[in-house]
Amino acid sequence: MSLADDNLRYSTSAPVSVSDFEDVLRRSGLAARRPVEDRACLEGMLRNANLIVTCWRGAELIGIARSVTDFVYCCYLSDLAVDAACQGRGVGVTLIRMTQEALGPRGQIILLSAPAAIAYYPHVGFDHHPQAWILPRDKPVRRGP
Question: Sheet of 108-110: strands edge to edge?
Answer without folding.
Answer: 8-11, 51-57, 60-69, 74-82, 108-110
